[in-house]
Amino acid sequence: MMNYEKYIGVIENFPKEGISFKDVSPLLSDGEVLHQAIDDMSAIINEWHPDLIIGPEARGFVFGAPIAYKLKVGFAMARKKGKLPGDVISKTYTLEYNSTTIELKKGLIKPGAKVVLVDDLLATGGTLRAVQELVEDCGGKVVGILTFIELNELSGYRVLKEAPYRSILRL
User: Fold this and answer.
1) Annotated catalytic, 96?
2) pTM of the full predicted structure?
3) What's the whole-number mean pLDDT along residues 97-117?
4) Which residues pair with 142 in a beta bridge?
5) Which of 50, 86, 140, 156 could form a disulfide with 109 if both were Cys (CB 3.0 to 4.6 A apart)?
6) Catalytic residue among 17, 79, 96, 153
7) Which CATH entry fits the domain spanning 5-170: 3.40.1670.10, 3.40.190.10, 2.160.20.10, 3.40.50.2020?
8) DSSP per position, 51-101
9) Which of 5, 32, 47, 59 is the catalytic position?
10) Do 93 and 129 form a contact (C-beta atoms < 8 A)?
């Protein structure tokens, strides 16, 4: 597998004091590296045989949509409160530096659907746990969770409900 670490920027004290922000922008701006990252992530997700991929706002969209395209499955967006039209279901949860609400559009997850969650980074796990609960509330089953980066020191995987979890890069 490619050495992706050199394509991840680190911005200290962003978005607030004490946070070390991991920036995937350098990776995304290099076409060859982005292509390889999508291929590597797709290979893992393909083993879970999903019907649908869900990416949380906003960087989950960047990875999730091209993986869904490559695997020929559907893609749904989990968005911040008030960003989706029509009927939605929502969950409020705590991040490492605030609390927020995430929503899914009703009707996108069919009962029994096999769903994979994709995001750029796993920190405390709050966002992915909230999306897991939304999927279950809709009658779907999370069959896997994949993030590009996992922050080792935060052990966010511990808050995730039972489902296979993988990451491409551990920092």
Assistant:
1) yes
2) 0.94
3) 93
4) 115
5) 140
6) 96
7) 3.40.50.2020
8) SEEEEETTHHHHHHHHHHHHHT-EEEEEEETT-S-SSEEEEEEE-SS-EEE
9) 59
10) yes
